[in-house]
């Protein structure tokens, strides 16, 4: 096992990345392709089998032993991608089985946030931690829950969807078809909507100006002291802090890791989220749970997380 390499594959809405990861969490080689080049999953299966083998041959003395995949709506138990909203693949795709058949090597699959949580545990800031939450703040909000050193998959394999906890019944329409989910408020998209609402005098759905603003721009305005931008970050932190207080009541984590560009937005999110979380926590949990920035390098996290699915299994056996 000393010279094994695991392929970590991240399937996203715009691009697919694959890299070979050592036991120490180094990415030795990686490749990237546009997702639109794969209208059928079979084309990806064939390409991965060839490209991972090629990458492995670049490193003499190493053997490619298995493949881990992070994908939207990935189901760990079935190795399937099910009804992914951001992919052109429809229905249920048994991707892990197809890759195992093609490569003759283990393939494990889960959703991207669960993979990120395992990556944090094996290669990031959660080493030696057994109970923590991992939250990705991107276009949406993803989460992975680790309890007792194990990722929580639940009965059906989809557990850990904090982004779709309803925090405002009847509120903003979510991509999942329901209203008021946490990710419609606490994500880059949510921040932009909040900022637009503040500008339009609080009227929802009436965005007014400015039309094309990005989360990064709102961040820059906040750093310059613009009141509306600071207010948008304040509301973001309040909603997130309250939701995390509820998550703490259910899982009692040691730490909560925030991952993504927004998480590292200086002092705009973490200290305020911590303040609002503490104000909403059950007294028995107060001052016991840290909120920390992820220790995974942002550009490599998806590949490391996906590979950690297989590394985690190899370490257990
Ligand atoms: Zn939702």
Provide a descriptive summary of the structure in words.
This protein has 317 residues and is of the alpha/beta class. It has eight helices and 13 strands. It has helices at residues 41-57, 95-103, 112-123, 188-199, 215-223, 227-251, 270-280, 301-316; strands at residues 4-11, 15-21, 27-34, 63-70, 74-75, 80-82, 92-93, 106-110, 132-137, 141-147, 150-151, 255-259, 290-293. It has a five-stranded mixed β-sheet with strand order 3-2-1-4-8, with helices on both faces. A hairpin with a 3-residue loop joins β1 (4-11) and β2 (15-21). The longest helix is centred in the C-terminal third of the chain and has 25 residues, at 227-251. The radius of gyration is 20 Å and the shape is globular. Bound molecules: zinc ion (ZN). Zinc ion (ZN) binds at residues 164, 174, 176, 178, 181.
Summarize the structure.
The chain has helices spanning 41-57, 95-103, 112-123, 188-199, 215-223, 227-251, 270-280, 301-316; strands at residues 4-11, 15-21, 27-34, 63-70, 74-75, 80-82, 92-93, 106-110, 132-137, 141-147, 150-151, 255-259, 290-293. Strand 1 and strand 2 form a beta hairpin. It contains 8 helices and 13 strands.
């Amino acid at each position: 096992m000393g010279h094994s390499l695991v392929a970590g594959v991240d399937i996203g809405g715009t691009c697919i990345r694959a890299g070979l990861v050592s036991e120490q969490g180094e990415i030795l080689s990686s490749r990237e392709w546009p997702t639109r080049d794969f209208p059928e999953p079979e084309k990806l299966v064939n390409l991965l089998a060839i490209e991972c083998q090629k990458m492995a041959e670049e490193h003499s003395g190493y053997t490619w032993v298995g493949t881990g995949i992070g994908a939207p709506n990935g189901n760990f138990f079935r190795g399937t991608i099910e009804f992914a909203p951001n992919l052109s693949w429809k229905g249920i795709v048994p991707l892990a089985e197809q890759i195992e058949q093609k490569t003759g090597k283990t393939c494990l699959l889960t959703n991207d946030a669960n993979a990120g949580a395992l990556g944090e545990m094996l290669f990031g800031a959660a080493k030696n931690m057994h109970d923590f939450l991992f939250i990705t703040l991107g276009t949406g909000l993803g989460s992975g829950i680790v309890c007792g050193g194990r990722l929580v998959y639940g009965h059906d394999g989809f557990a850990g969807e904090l982004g779709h906890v309803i925090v405002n019944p009847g509120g903003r329409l979510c991509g999942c078809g329901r209203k008021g989910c946490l990710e419609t408020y606490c994500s880059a998209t949510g921040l932009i909507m909040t900022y637009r609402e503040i500008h339009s005098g609080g009227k929802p759905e009436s965005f007014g100006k400015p039309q094309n603003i990005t989360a990064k721009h709102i961040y820059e305005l906040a750093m310059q002291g613009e009141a509306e931008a600071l207010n948008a970050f304040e509301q973001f932190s309040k909603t997130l802090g309250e939701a995390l207080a509820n998550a703490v009541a259910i899982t009692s984590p040691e730490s909560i890791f925030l991952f993504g560009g927004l998480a590292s937005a200086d002092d705009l999110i973490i200290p305020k989220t911590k303040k609002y979380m503490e104000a909403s926590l059950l007294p028995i949990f107060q001052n016991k749970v840290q909120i920390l920035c992820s220790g995974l390098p942002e550009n490599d996290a998806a590949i490391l997380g996906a590979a950690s699915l297989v590394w985690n299994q190899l370490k257990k056996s």
